[in-house]
Design a protein that fits this description.
The complex is a heterodimer of chains A (about 170) and B (about 270). Chain A has six helices and eight strands. By secondary structure, chain A is of the alpha+beta class. In chain A, strands 1, 2, 3, 4, 5 and 8 form a six-stranded antiparallel sheet that branches. In chain A, strands 6-7 form a two-stranded antiparallel sheet. Chain B is α+β, with helices and mostly antiparallel strands and about 270 residues long. In chain B, about 40% of the residues lie in helices and about 15% in strands. The longest helix of chain B is centred in the middle third of the chain and has 20 residues. In chain B, strand 7 and strand 8 form a beta hairpin. Classes of the chains: A alpha+beta (about 170), B alpha+beta (about 270).
């Protein structure tokens, strides 16, 4: 960036994939894509969104073991409960990453600045922030589908989604 | 292999076959000589949210393990050595403690720890107790009770602190199986608690016990095994830790404390 340019600090969005490693000790084990979670932070607002598969394929259900079947038969339902827990914390994705780091993992997030178009007169517009969060989740959902063609063919094409916004707590 | 070891493992550990093989091999070794590649952080979180040691994942061939500590610590707590000693003592007692081997990483950047350890998962897939608790019914807990209860006197013996649902891994391949369990993260035990005190007197039950019906027979059997634990075996496990990982004076503090505590555990559980 040139010396004459002043960077605008508007906020960030973090997006993490949520995966299940059936053989977490092996580099060549089956990895089941469960969904993605996104966290947006702009002045005065923070938001959390989740997109996840409604169900797993019979093949995947077989691969994740009995305990996995009990916990993750419906990834969206299971992750919605995690969403509720995370929503009460200051750093939802970090909370979930620390909670799930063995077979069931919330991966390291990609972090990007949010676009300027979400702001009018320097203030974030709630509806635009919400839409952007939802769009970012949809995009991540498509990436997950594209990651594994074999699993993609079984993946629910329109996975359920949850987006919530709340005022950002004062520092 | 001594018959006693086979009986021990069948009684209180239920690792998958290939990981039992790793546990057996690693219990007879101190250092890995293999070439491991560090893949990245399990989590890159600070202590308030994640693991204190910020572990990495390391890979050798097709095997991936957890590498600890993932950052340089200057507090002299010798985390890798403590993890290794806890694992080897647990193996000798036939308990479900995850396999650990030491790794001298040689020249590493200043912010990383040269004297590290690798921890193998004991089965696949693996959940923490914390994340899977609501999926375990009464029947599962009853079946897991024997292996889970047996660890408690051991944790008293080694003065394990910082126990919790994050430090007990669980798997249940099939509905009728006995749940597989593996205890991890013993860096905050022994030297961490005893410091330079060669006769630390305090003994207590672990600060967290998984909610299973206590199996008193298993608890008493492990207490019996701890009481009969041979001093020569104890000394070998600890004295064989290479000097870089643990100083001679620190080894002696651990040995003396473990020997002093051997016959005091029964009173805690009676």
């Amino acid at each position: 960036m040139g010396e004459t340019i002043v960077p605008f600090s508007t906020g960030t969005i973090k997006v993490s994939a949520i995966r299940f490693y059936c053989s977490q000790s092996r580099t060549d084990g089956l990895v089941v894509q469960l969904g993605a979670i996104a966290e947006i932070l702009v002045p005065k607002l923070c938001g959390l969104g989740l997109i996840a598969r409604a169900q797993l394929t019979p093949f995947e259900m077989e691969a994740i073991g009995e305990l996995g079947r009990r916990l993750l038969a419906s990834p969206f339902e299971a992750l919605s409960k995690e969403f509720d827990l995370a929503w009460t914390t200051e750093e939802p994705i970090e909370f979930l990453r620390s909670r799930h780091s063995h077979s069931f993992r919330v991966e390291a997030p990609s972090i990007q600045n949010v676009p300027r178009r979400l702001f009018i007169d320097g203030q974030p517009v709630r509806s635009l922030v919400r839409t952007f969060l939802s769009e970012s989740l949809d995009e991540e959902g498509q990436k997950l589908v594209a990651l594994d063609e074999r699993q993609a063919s079984h993946m629910v094409k329109e996975p359920p989604e949850r987006v919530e916004l709340r005022p950002q707590a004062a520092a | 292999m001594p018959i006693s070891r086979i009986i021990h493992r069948k009684t209180f550990r239920n690792f998958s076959g290939e990981f039992e093989a790793i546990a057996t091999r690693w219990s007879g070794m101190r250092l890995t000589k293999d070439r491991w590649t560090v893949l990245g952080k399990v989590t890159d979180l600070k202590k308030k949210a994640g693991s204190e040691s910020q572990p990495d994942v390391a890979q050798c061939g097709p095997l991936q393990c957890v590498l600890k500590p993932g950052k340089k610590e200057t507090d002299g707590k010798n985390r890798a050595a403590i993890e290794k000693i806890a694992s080897d003592l647990g193996f000798e007692l036939g308990l479900a403690v995850a396999p650990v081997i030491l790794w001298d990483r040689g020249n590493v950047p200043d912010d990383q720890e040269r004297y590290a350890c690798l921890i193998a998962w004991a089965f696949e897939p693996a959940f923490t107790w914390e994340e899977s608790e609501h999926g375990l019914g009464t029947a599962d807990r009853n079946k897991a009770a024997r292996d889970v209860s047996a660890i408690w006197p051991f944790e008293t013996w080694i003065a394990a602190t910082d126990r919790g649902g994050k430090h007990l891994l669980v798997s249940l391949p099939n509905a009728d199986d006995v749940p597989q369990t593996a205890n991890i993260d013993y860096a905050f035990s022994m030297l961490y608690v005893w410091g330079n005190d060669p006769a630390h007197g305090s003994l207590a039950k672990p600060n967290w016990c998984a909610p299973v019906p206590p199996d008193q027979a298993a608890i008493m059997e492990i207490i019996d095994r701890i009481e009969k634990f041979q001093e020569t075996t104890l000394r070998k496990i600890i004295d064989d830790i290479p000097e870089g990982f643990l100083q001679k004076s620190q080894k002696e503090i651990i040995i003396v404390n473990l020997l002093n505590r051997q016959r005091k555990i029964r009173a805690i559980y009676s």
